[in-house]
Design a protein that fits this description.
Layout: H1 3-13, H2 26-34
Length: about 35
């Protein structure tokens, strides 16, 4: 996971704090839920 990808995902998810289940990989899910 590169930081740039995570930052882009964060910007997309800013309006919605609930992360969709269709993201490839649990790393993103865990990262967002910890924020």
């Amino acid at each position: 996971m590169s930081k740039k990808i995570i930052e882009e995902i964060e910007k997309k998810l800013t309006p919605e704090r609930d992360i969709p289940e269709f993201w490839p990989g649990d790393e993103i899910t865990v990262y967002v839920k910890l924020k």
